[in-house]
User: Fold these one by one.
Assistant:
Number 1:
Amino acid sequence: MGEVIQAAKITHVPSIYLSEQPGPTQGIRQHAIDGLKELGRRAAERGADTFVVLDVHWAVTIGFHLNANERHAGEYTSHELPHFINGLTYEYPGDPELAKLIGEHGEADGLHMRVHQYPGLSLEYGTLIPMRHMNPEGAMRVLPVACNENATMEEQAAFGKAIRRAVDASDRKVSVLASGSLSHEFAPNKVADQKRNEITDEFNRQVDLRVVELWEQGRVEEFLAMFPSYAERCYGEQRMADTAMLFGVLGWDEYRGKAESITPYFPSTGTGQINIEFPVG
Ligand SMILES: [Fe+2]
């Protein structure tokens, strides 16, 4: 029987890649890198076969999509921030079998599933940045999942539950990662470079911190009650589809786990970021 051995909400900010390069920005996101490495270490220790990455930078507009390629390999340069991320080479095994199984479970629930095997379907940085540190040898399988901001919270939750059932029915040990921001109000263009380590609006920071507190205390009912407003008013990246799907994987309103912050909350170019793990029972 398969098992979800890890569930976490993680950061993928491009400044992590900058932090790795020689120069004035070297080391600025070391705490985020250390947190990703620790989560990767825990996943390996628990025998993970596959990282299922709910990637807000793979944005889709209709249906639920999975990258079922046998192998992911290439050289990535970001179209959004080419001066931050360029020439990033990668190679990971994919997980077509688990993708197919998730597709079948989602389809059975009436979700519009799309399970793709196109050679040109490459990875986005919401997957690539964390995998560099969580899966450094490229030994574990990677299954990227798209985020559809047009889907309702109920659909996101249903899709997360379908992922969980598919994993349980598989023979895989799986780490599920919600790769996305907390609040995501970008710093204004004119001052974006100066605001690299700041939040855009103190309101966003305070709401983010409250959400983290609710997660750490296992107060899921209260969080879910505020979740739609939070996603809307704090500029959720892809309306926080990644977080909604992750909570679906965890069991939505039946979940009672207390989250553990691995990298404490930090601001990045106006947005709110964290690495936080949710125990899976
Ligand atoms: Fe992002």
Number 2:
Amino acid sequence: MKETGTIAVIGQGYVGLPLALSFAMNGQNVIGVESNPEIRKNLASGRTLQNENWNGKSIETILKEQLESGRYRLSGDTVAAVREAETICLTVGIPVADGQPVLDSFHGACEQIGKGLQAGSLVLIRSTVIPGTSESYCVPLFEKLSGLKFGETLFVAYVPERIAEGSAFEEFRTMPTLIGSSDPQSREKAAEVICINSRSEMIFCHSAIEAETSKVLENLQRDTNIAIAQEFARFAEAAGMNAIDVIRLANTHPRVHMMEPGPGVGGYCIPNAFYYLAHKASELGVSLPIMKAARDLNDQMPNTIVSKTIELLAQAGKKPQESRVAVIGLGMKDYSPDDRLSPSVVICEQLAASGFEVRAYDPNVAKAYPYKVESIEKAVENVDALLILNKISKEFRPSEFFSLLKQPAVILDTRNLVQEKDLPADAVFWRI
Ligand SMILES: NC(=O)c1ccc[n+]([C@@H]2O[C@H](COP(=O)([O-])OP(=O)(O)OC[C@H]3O[C@@H](n4cnc5c(N)ncnc54)[C@H](O)[C@@H]3O)[C@@H](O)[C@H]2O)c1
């Protein structure tokens, strides 16, 4: 087993927690640093809402095991944890508000890291960032606060996190890892730490900004790909075809990887990527019209779904103030407990603001919402419209609940889960 001394993982969210536990499972002494006392308290008692598994164990089981082993412990004190650790992994994110990256938490975490650094410290920046952040912002700040010298007594690399929520433990092992730093020693030291968890390829980038930009580009590729699928879905609808069936046909070509349309694009990663690149692009005087159009289109999808619901209910002779709507799925994507920037949540809120009584069901999402109910039956019973926004479990078959809907039922299927032969006789049906 490789011995790297103590590893401090700053931020114990969707990335930081499974990352810290992976290091601990691989024999390392890990401090999970989390600024939110509520999250810390829950983690310290073995509780998390995350939905990850490894080797047949849930993340909660792994968390309890690693707490008991003493290899994983929690702290709210970043400076002290950084002082104690040889390696620091930064996983605090950069949210976006009104199209602008909000840097307060990320900058706050960097300042605390800078104050705790010791000669020989290695910092791996794993958050998704505005291109240029690691070596134009973090390194000078770390040098100033610690008095250390990058490449001599301080080592810093940008190592983008590429996992998908729900597959974190598996993907820490199998996902090829980019390691970006202009300092060769930093790249080598980073690789030694990464190979504790990873059995996959490591790709060295001779600057942090290349790795930072490639991470943003990966997310933007998915954003634009989904936007094309959304636009194509409108064409397929007008032409009387099932868009998802046609996309699957196109994907039988080995060089075509079209994604599927849906109710919008949520989560922390894909929607924010454009704004990170746009921030750098405006500094450089470059415009990004295609990526912007894609972002805007995906951003508009919840409005499209709400307008379609109102249109179909009107077709069925129903008014918003008299109608109840059931929404299946609140997570940012199928099966997800993560409801950050979730299109489903936007749709529920817009429907409620338009006068509908909304009842939403998603067993994966723990957060309480005024319109959330605890069973699918409670959600669908006697409603005028059913909106299928996410796959919520492998077993979920919407048609099993059609008889509970008020007839004539309005049914909107954004996940291609409904077969027309199963529809109630007089249903008003729309598929994305
Ligand atoms: N979620 C994913 O699947 C995923 C995948 C790849 C990359 N990323 C990127 O990884 C980063 C983290 O994403 P996430 O989903 O884990 O975010 P998250 O919000 O779940 O986790 C961040 C955690 O950091 C904590 N925090 C904030 N400031 C802190 C500080 N100063 N000290 C200690 N803790 C602090 C927050 O309370 C939060 O718990 C983001 O940049 C994101 O874009 C996420």
